[in-house]
Amino acid sequence: MSRELSRTAPEISPGLYRTIQIVKSIAVYFLLILAALIVLFPLLFSLSLAVQGPTIAPNLLPDFSNLDFSVFGQAFAREKNLGRWIVNSFVVSIAVTLGQLVTSALAAYALVTLKFPGKSLFLFLFLGTLMIPWESTIVPNYLSVTSWGWKDSYQGLIAPFLASGFGIFLLRQYFMTIPRDLYEAATIDGCGRTRYLWSILIPLSRPALGTLAVYAFLNTWNQYYWPLLIIDDPVWRTTQVGITAFRSSEIQVYNLQMAATIIVLLPTLILLILGQRQLVRGLTEGALKG
Amino acid sequence: MKRTRNLGQLLALGLVTLLLTGLLAACGDSTATTTTVASTTAAVVGTTAAGATTAASAAAAKTTTAAGTTATGATTVAAGTTTAASATTVAAGATTAASATTTAAVAAPTPTAVAPIPQPAGSVKITFWYGLTGALGNVVQQTVNKYNSSQSKYYVEAIQQPSYDDTINKLNTSLAGATLPNVAQIYDIGTQRMIDTKKILPVQDFIDKEQLNIISDLEPAVASYYTVGGKLYSMPFNSSAPVMYFDKNAFKEVGLDPEKKIWTYDEVLEAAKKLVKKDASGKIIRGGVDFTLYSWIFEQELATQGAVFAAPDNGRNARATNLAFNNDAGTNWLNFLKKIQDDGLGRSWGRDGGANSSTRDAKFVTGETAITFNSIAGLRGYISSAAQAGGKVDVGVAYIPRPTGAKGGVIIGGASFWITNTGTPEQQAASWDFVKWTALPEIQAYWSSNTGYYPIRKGAYDVQEMKDTLAKYPQFNVAIEQLRATEPSSATQGAVFGTFVSTRQAIEGAMEQFLAGKFPTAKAALDDAASKSNDTLSEYNSTVK
Amino acid sequence: MSLIDKPQKETVRFPDNRRDSSVGEMTEITLGLTNQRRVAVPQRLNPRWKELGWALLYISPALLIFLVFTYFPFIRSVWLSFYVTTPTGEPARFNDVKYYSRILNLDGSGRDEYLKSILTTVQFSLMVVPLGIITALALAVLATAKVRIIGVFRTIFTSSVAISVASASVIWSLIYTPTIKVTQWLVDLLHLKSESLLNDASTALLAVAFMTVWSALGFNFIITLSGIQAIPQDLYESGRIDGANGWTGFRYITLPLLTPTLMFLFIISTIQCFQAFTQFNVMIGNEGPDNSTNVMVYSLFTAFWKDNRYGFASAISVVLFAILIILTVIQYRVLDKRVHYQ
After folding, report:
1. Using CB atoms, which residue from B51, B175, B355 is nearest to C151?
2. Is residue C252 part of a domain?
3. pTM, two decimal places
């Protein structure tokens, strides 16, 4: 349809052309806003429920003349450790993210640029980790971590997640789009392997690394069963474990439940908003070289 | 150029973390910490991201209200004018918010978290896991605090687990790692599994050693539930039983007796016909009887009809080897529910738990349901929610319904305290001291008055606090009568076997499939559930001899 | 283990800058020879072995973590799957392959609930994966529109990435609850017997799938958008000269060049669907109306967490693993040929 439009474009008057452009951009805005509303609906919905006060039968829309924001304060007041839990989640998530970036970049680099026997076996081993359900690994892991005395500690929360099959796969797919000539040229120029990775491949792959960072961070932030198992002392809990208490009271209090949910998702949402600008810019600038 | 931005990103991340950690370390007072953390985040948002509407507004809303600004002020922020300026205001407001947070908390209907008291020097410390959350969890912590300040020899560190399920599962996983709590609150259906861990010190042994005269004062139904093979294994703590809740106003409206306590299935069906209201399209707007599919109620109905759930003798004298719930008593209840649904007298909200239970509760307190079934521990919640929802509903309590001529009773539910064999002899002594203390009449009166569970001691009813509570909630008396009227038998003692959790799931699945018409008869549905459950049970039994 | 020991020995021997060194004793001898020969000999001998040492060095951190925390436990699981275990996870007696024949309904019991569970998982993936990728693609194309404040829209479209599946499940279970009446029109429209989409056997899986699409949308969107952004603009410009615009541009430039990204999404989404658990646990909390949402991981969870049947849970996880491996290999074989690498 738009092909026809553009073909006829030179034959129509400039005025009509401008009108078409305006109509087009209105349509685009309309679609964007519609899509945004649909995507945001669950979030707006949870906010709406949170500010309706402790009612047992909330409505879809709150009574705008009587919004109750005190519920967010209540959530904090009710759980004294909430601040500490958020810190724990941050420390663990950042450490895991950095760890995954390093281990995945190194492994993906080897898989893409180096030629060695057993390469597909290693790829298979890495991809295979994605397919192993966590339930089948949790008991032995619990025993190992306990025997090392890592209960109630950051290392216990961090170590098992320092490598990611997903990260390796993601970076491998991305590295593969970077022309191999670049590697050959660089190594012939006497640029060492590690230096090639550090000063050429990594800067070129910022979008993929950014994506992995976001993904790793959020996944770690959202972990539930592992932290639940290896943490006894409430101060070492992470937000997801801690917040479950809000959800399982005997008679459910919708506003508190939703307020707690919003509080836990806020840090990640803020991070996303901060990171998104970087990410998008990285995408538009960095990727063109590929 | 590019690398600098990359670095900048990392730096920013690191900075935020540092700030948060630093703040936490600096402020000993946790209330102050949380507020400051919020203000920092708000400031960060304000200075960096312009499009952060949702994020900043929610954070802003919280801090503004905490600082005592009017709700309208908060609304403006939330309306979406998140400029750097408004975020700065929020940050500025938050600096003064430290003291205001406490005020907000006092005004809040939900109780604030209860802080544990510090451990006195030289005391023996034991750990205690509990699975109650929310307001109930707070009362547990308060009870522990009472114990800790009542003496200085022992100190109980109470650790809350996210739920009953998580408590026993975590305990089970910890068995191999040998880091068990000294005392754990475990739900009723975990009884056999706890015994099978072989890491348990039965409270009976402690009672016998001290020749303590406590068993005779325990509520008989409660004591008998936790007695297996003649031995009281754990000390009951929070106990409840199901009742039939109804709206007295609705009963009066259609001319039913709101004071009648015992209802047969047929009487309930007749009542439901009068109570149900439909709109022009035939859609139910007030259910006569609305219910969730809840295995616990199913088990109770078996007991009411004097039928056992597991054979032999509900596992009370020897290990249960066979599930027997696919009997007439079971089919009676399923047919009763099916009739309600098929005759359009009421609605099923689906299987019990999560959002479905909330639906049941919400519909009842708003008057959209005339009769429903739930634990007596839900009474206060219903009364206060009904008042909040406009006070249309006057909450009444009756016995759970029964077929004509049934003479059994109800089974106690809830949870009890288990003492594990970990730790030093002093810790084990401390564990028993704590558990014994929680069973004191005054403590049980306190617990019951603040939660809505039955006291486990008969003596608790003589305590003034309990008398006041009963005067305030006269409906509770019906539940006590129902409990006392229960005839002791292995049927009303309740079943103990190792795979209760999945059996409940199988029963609820069978009920759901039967109501959806997937099975021709109730018997066929229950047979299917029984055969599934028997497979699991016989495998379990074969591993725990 | 020998895999790990080997590279370490080599790295000690070869400093960083001597990139042309090779494996084994050969090097020690050749060191003294002329420069020319030193370069030539090992390369002619085995150019691929030469890089193995380096590769292992780069791979070892990830490999070590995986061996300790994934493969060692998994191999233990495979072993356990042939045993009946005690409630604490110790093997109680050898069970042969009975668990496997039970899962695959080869034991003559005629009960096919586990086969049905596999089928449910496949259905779930068929609902989520195509819909998820198409939605993400549509949004990503929409988000390349050159209008003002497009950044805000991009952030919004990405937002669900910041919301954990657990949180999202809590929100969505309230969206589906009859108390708040958001989805009641749909229940009435479909004339369901139940009061909620989640309680009806015909809609429960779809309802969870829809929530999953939303929950994964942010991530799928970022990936797709980054893929589209990576396509050089000059391709479109030269395309425009040839008359490729709008749909044709999308069909003949965007889509082909996006295939590596889409393949990645396809494989990852499929794996994630097969592993999906949290939403089922939070929103349904059991095997669903008429077993309609009893996906494999949920039945695994029941066996593991509710029954403590570790042996049986292990057997389910091995079957799940096998299915995923087969699926991925097929996807990879079929799709990798069609993928255009630049």
Report:
1. B51
2. yes
3. 0.79
